[in-house]
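Forwarding these from the shared drive since the link keeps breaking.
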Amino acid sequence: MAELEEDQITLTNYTVSKRPSIKIEDRFRLWVRSGGRCAICNKYLLDLTYEVNVGEMAHIVGWSKAKNSPRGEAKTPLDERNDVNNLVLLCAEHHKIVDTKALLEEFTIERLIMQKVKHEQRIFHLTSLNADAESVVLRMLGGIRGVNVEVSKKHVRDVVFKSEEKFAMYMDSFDRHGIEIDLHTLGEPEEAWDAYWQMGQTIIDRSLRPLTDGIQKGTIRHLSVFALSRIPLLTYLGYKLGDKVPASFYQKQRGTSETWAWSTDEPEVQFEINYLKKHESNKLSLVLSISGSIPLADLPEASKSGSNIYEIRPIGVTPHRDIFTNRKSLENFTVVYHRFLSELEKDHKASRNIDFFPAIPVTAAIACGRGLMRDVHPAITIYDRTANGYRSSLKINNNEIN
């Protein structure tokens, strides 16, 4: 091959002109519009110690049509590709991420343009805003009747972005996979009933320490939770998370797509509270017939005898396991559950415990724990269904313990 001229470079199967310089006015416009911060993670791009520029001007549509030019196959004219509207200011890490070949289907032209516009509009209106485009990922998987379920980083990133327009953030850990609660080693509760639930709570407590530290330091402002486990452990997780930071909850959806994303096409479901049995006592039981129906006959005799029994169930819909496909259904359930807790403060103020019988989706279980207020609401004793009927598993919001 003949020696190339100085103004040419070689890419795979292509010889293309050397990349032209970005005009000074376009550099200036880009830095001002972006506030000197990465459009994805909001990192400040001027090293204050040495006053060195550490930002990188990334092309949304690659500057050439060569095969190795990220998104370069687009129809954008070559003479417009160095324009400020085709440039996004990024830190070195995110520049590498968005141009990585394996991630090009994820970091599309449309997605990068939307993030650029959103970031630059935020800077324009209030440059002192903290980063609000990140969501820390929390995964809790395992401990559910031998079922081994995973959710990939890529799927998490895709679901979080499409649902919240946020970028999934993985806290510093050996695998950069966020907060991990691994319950696969628990085995089955029938093998050692009390030890199983105690160990599950211990694993959750230990795994949530980075979250507690991050909330205290102000580095965690939003959570995206992907969880699949036994209902009592999910309820305990919700209780430990509380409502200190905003959070979005996802659950694995059955069907052809096998996704964790919520559907906007499925109808939302409403819920109601029914008073099944009334007694002049402070004993309380709550039946949650959401993903399945729980007949009163299935409750242990000790929970039925002399107890005020309430039920929350869907309106006009037979309880079934795929009842939560639209996120609005979860929100509607949460509103009704909170109303139930509020009414207890008026009608059963002296009650100290609720026997809790759940047939509910995983996100509803988390919502039930998260809705409990310490020193306000009664404790809940959660019953888990076994082959021999319902059996008490663990107790939450017990002031003697907490």
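-- next protein --
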Amino acid sequence: MTESEFTQLADAIFTRIENALDSSGTDIDYSFNGPVLELEFEDGSQIIINRHTPNQEIWIAAKSGGFHFSLQGGQWLSKRDDSEFFSKLSELVHLATGKPVSI
């Protein structure tokens, strides 16, 4: 995959996250800082989502740890536990808010 293709895929992921958060009805503040998306919750905790272009990975940093996802067979899968990116992010947001959020 070229760097341009990775960037397009990462942009689509960030757009999907933004749309899901906007329609979730939860009070989650988020902001973009270049290739980083920061989610901040009512208790001050954060989830940081970062595109790591050199490795063509999407990274999540949360209280429960860090996860690196790479595109495998059409899905973004964790190198740590084979979890799928959107499922893992939904789980982490649910833990932070106490409300189910589907991303």
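The longest strand covers residues 65-72. The chain has one domain: 3-96.

- D.
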